[in-house]
Amino acid sequence: MTRESHGQHRADDRPAVRRPASIKDVAAAAGVSPTTVSHVLSGNRPVNEQTAARVRSVVNRLGYVPASLARSLQAGSTSVIGLLIPDISNAFFAELAKGAEDAAHDLGYGLILCNTEFDAEREDSYLGLIRSRFVDGMVYASGSSPSRRRLEALMGKFPIALADEEVDGLERALIATADHEAGGRLVGEHLRELGHRRVLMLTGPRALRSGVARAAGFVRAFRGHVVERVGDFKEASGYRLVAKLLEEGGLDCTAVFAANDLMAFGALAALTEAGLSVPGDVSVVGFDDIRAASQINPPLTTVHQPAYDVGRTATAQLLQYVSRGEVPPASRHTLPVTLKVRGSTAPAAG
Amino acid sequence: MTRESHGQHRADDRPAVRRPASIKDVAAAAGVSPTTVSHVLSGNRPVNEQTAARVRSVVNRLGYVPASLARSLQAGSTSVIGLLIPDISNAFFAELAKGAEDAAHDLGYGLILCNTEFDAEREDSYLGLIRSRFVDGMVYASGSSPSRRRLEALMGKFPIALADEEVDGLERALIATADHEAGGRLVGEHLRELGHRRVLMLTGPRALRSGVARAAGFVRAFRGHVVERVGDFKEASGYRLVAKLLEEGGLDCTAVFAANDLMAFGALAALTEAGLSVPGDVSVVGFDDIRAASQINPPLTTVHQPAYDVGRTATAQLLQYVSRGEVPPASRHTLPVTLKVRGSTAPAAG
DNA sequence: CTAGGTATCCAAAGCCCTTTGCACAACCGC
DNA sequence: GCGGTTGTGCAAAGGGCTTTGGATACCTAG
User: Fold this and answer.
1) Which residues does chain A have within 8 Å of residue B297's beta carbon, measured at their own beta carbons?
2) 20 to 30 Å CA-CA from A201: which of A227, A336, B193, B211?
3) DSSP letter at B173?
4) Average pLDDT of span A308-314
């Protein structure tokens, strides 16, 4: 009992946060029932204009704002979705996030940022958001492979859209993705036309289908010798892989194709440090066309991915169904990519 | 008729989304009361191990996950906060967002991304999130000035933290910001030590307090002659201002200090085009240390801002109070900046 | 004068969960 | 045996909102 009174009202101590006005307070102050207040605010049923005016005035005076939580509970949906991405500080995902945010905001939805750092545990904790129905849906862009199984189970029960990502055996899914295979093909053709015959390809983790598609498209179009090294889409890994090869006695390739721009940056740095000139000695190609790609020296030849559109399309598609309480159907939206030829590629030396 | 059959048999069709199991369903299936289920799951009160096991098995079988919405309603808080920024595709804010997200996730909070594009209307709609108590707090990083007044009113009532942002006359606020003044000072000292005596300073709009602080710190430490030109933080303005001075008969300065990296890039381009060598003839310094700064040629000497830490600190501070249901006190956290000396600065010629 | 609107408003039933006060046994030491 | 623990589980009271089926009063028409 003493403990209770301690919490109740510590006389000389004002409460940490004053309880905000509820619909009951408004009703009482206006001399009507909560029902009427609700009707005035929502317009769901007609209310006598005089009464309505009185209610509105009280609402203003008390600064009443309906608790969206209660409304959501009653409505059975929150008007919030999640966006699951590995790394918001990667310009590609930032751009994608912007597209997703725009689409969500257009339809009055909020967007919860789920940054996973490719950490399976973190991803799971964020997927809890949808299982506990705190979000009405989820845009899933490139997660950690360990959770694929879990994702699969979720997709049947909850509205999920895949952005720039594919999942083996998940046919029944809503997917918006750039044309990775075509992107790889464009690079393959470009390097081939420049006379390159031996290329170092820095891929991402094999579990990510998008990366696999890029590599496949490239190999198919290039038709030369391809040395493959597996990285993790981070700048450091591009640097490390190339530096290691150089140490071990030479690259033995006239070009490097990195599966994303960040790794290309890393490769560029390693090459430059080793005294090699780009594109004089070695050509470098990236993928994504993040902003820095055109600002770096030399400007990076890369495949432009419509990151913004991918995010926007995936989200808009998802919401089209979520907002009607439906589970989205299987459908695929493949967005075109383009090759941006810049200064980092040149005809093969020799 | 055709339309309906298109949507599958509608008469006795299952609903679009099956109603998920509630605590009542679990209780009924396990032959206990909802109370007991709650206790089993929360551990708030001891439950007979045999009963608990039975409940847990039913929970698994039904795939029951408590509706976080109901829990939040009852608890009076949602464990979600908002992050309001102008542009997530700007690398600085993406980094800041990452810090904020990390801090939030560490404490089990979700983060709603509020991207405003400097649009006052959009900002207001997002501030509704906090007024309707859908978020427990808000990290506010650089909003549109029109809403300052509104922000001011909010700060008294709701938990809000300012990130890398200052507001005139808003003393009673929780603020985390980089030490802009010190950054300017570092640059001032650096150029002074290199023997520069006349410097062209490209500032940002005077309305932004952070830019003003940078300039003030610089002037104080440099103690030489400073020519000031006002830009707008964009690359083009850096180019334009320098090009114009060169046309009008010479720079008459041995160094340029731009208030951010983008303007420094512009300045660099203008100088190079005019046949001047950097840093041979003129030294150039930027501010922010965005990625491209180290990749440009020559690599840019600049002030590194801890964007990640600013986001993280602002959020962690906010949550420290929010998680206890308190309104955060006025406090200021100034984070240290560092000077990155790279290839764009050298001793003054002559 | 009554049947059938129409305009207004309210009571009560949820939405799904957690918390708290009790009830009921079974058991303890004295 | 008696007051007093422990262990175990339930009923009921919210938390703040929306929705829905009346209730009430007042009218209009037949």
Assistant:
1) 297
2) A336
3) S
4) 97
